[in-house]
């Protein structure tokens, strides 16, 4: 049973370019979360999605960042016109979405974005 | 809103010694509590979680944690550490009854020396 997959593992972009980060949740999981980890800091929540719906994007920067989780295919975190401050590790987590209880989030290995 | 404070950014310890990693939280509502471990250049792995019931929670790799509501703490302990326990440890909370948006502490780097 494959875990949460993220690709690419490392991504280098120049300022002004676009970055696309992909996350394939564990089989049977319908909930996806994105977190960002800046150097020497803990993870910060960005966005929570279910299939075709954004449930909570309170942690997303208002500009340049967007996320989607289509009916088919992986979840995508998109950063337009990247700046040096976007350099970080971006982690995706998935959960089965069990009703009436809290269900554990399983984390992927992360994508390390470096903006030159 | 919830917040998490991990009181020690780094904890050096010798192999086979006991260790405690401290975590305090603040919240106006009931919370669930978690400890995750992150090995270098890897994702996070769940060590243990407290949802309800017994305040002493046992996790993987010989770790345990105790929920103390009056002191709003959830300290992680291991009676005898191994070199392989060297990693970053994160305490996290989420609002109970809600979905699982996790609020993380800044992390504690545990360095086990021979």
Summarize the structure.
Chain A is mostly beta strands and 116 residues long. Chain A has no helices and 11 strands.
* Unreliable sequence segments of chain B: none
Average pLDDT across residues of chain B? 92
Write down the Rg of chain A.
Answer: 14 Å
Strand content of chain A: over 45%
* SSE class of chain B: mainly beta
Task: Kindly describe this structure.
The complex is a heterodimer of chains A (116) and B (114). In chain A, a hairpin with a 6-residue loop joins strand 7 and strand 8. The model of chain A has no long low-confidence stretch (mean pLDDT 91). In chain A, the strands form two sheets. In chain A, strands 2, 4, 5, 6, 9, 10 and 11 form a seven-stranded mixed β-sheet that branches. Chain A has a four-stranded antiparallel β-sheet with strand order 1-3-8-7, with no helix packed on it. Chain A has 116 residues and is an all-beta fold. The relative contact order of chain A is 0.33. Chain B is mainly β. Chain B has no helices and twelve strands. In chain B, the strands form three sheets. In chain B, strands 2, 5, 6, 10, 11 and 12 form a six-stranded mixed β-sheet that branches. Chain B is globular and about 45 Å long. The chains are: A mainly beta (116), B mainly beta (114). At the A-B interface, strand 4, strand 5, strand 9 and strand 10 of A face strand 6 and strand 11 of B.
